[in-house]
Specification:
Elements (H helix, E strand, L loop, with lengths): L5 H23 L2 H19 L7 H34 L8 H7 L9 H20 L2 H12 L4 H8 L3 H21 L5
Helix pairs in contact: 1-2, 1-3, 2-3, 3-4, 4-5, 5-8, 6-7, 6-8, 7-8
């Protein structure tokens, strides 16, 4: 089979673009996230498989798009879990507010600065920090880069010197371990 030319790759991407976008919108229910997913899938196909034969593009692209969509869904689920946990702890309405700084500030979820509120938040913060510190080093590193620093999988993998699959595994294990440990200590997610 002859290898694809740049023009053939461009033609394939142009033909599949609208269908891929609809597929991503249906899965992610967010147009901006869908655009990002389609763009990421197209870039990955071009960078990694652009020199393959044209008849392999549809299968490769669909597999890549599906994986990108699943990654986005997992990332959103984990981020929503942690954001809702910290929102419940801090009562923050400001999306740019740092939950750890707000916890350290000592206001209770109703916005009142009470001794009881400060004590509860200090205890919760200690539990969270202790449980993050107990994670294995690689899991802690991946977790903090992905969910505190908001680095994407590729950036985290490059920073950690490992594969993207390893980053996903470390993050998954870290979130499961943290969720179980926090629940055992009375912090519900």
């Amino acid at each position: 089979m002859p290898l694809a030319s740049r023009a053939e790759l461009s033609s394939f991407l142009e033909d599949v673009e609208k269908r891929a976008f609809k597929q991503a919108v249906y899965a992610l229910r967010n147009e901006e996230a869908a655009l990002d997913a389609v763009q990421d899938a197209m870039l990955k196909l071009s960078a990694s498989y652009g020199d393959r034969p044209c008849d392999e593009f549809p299968m490769l692209f669909q597999r890549i798009l599906r994986n990108v969509i699943y990654d986005a869904m997992r990332r959103r689920k984990v981020r929503n879990t942690w954001v809702s946990l910290f929102s419940a702890l801090t009562g923050a309405d400001d999306p740019d507010a740092d939950p750890l700084e707000m916890l350290g500030a000592g206001t209770d979820p109703d916005g009142r600065d009470t001794p009881h509120g400060r004590l509860e938040q200090a205890r919760t913060l200690q539990v969270i920090e202790r449980e993050i510190a107990r994670l294995p080093a690689r899991q802690r590193e991946a977790f903090l880069m992905r969910y505190w620093e908001e680095m994407d999988i590729a950036e985290t993998a490059a920073a950690m010197g490992c594969s993207e699959g390893s980053v996903k595994t470390h993050c998954s294990r870290a979130t499961q371990t943290l969720a179980a440990a926090l629940k055992a200590r009375g912090v519900e997610l």
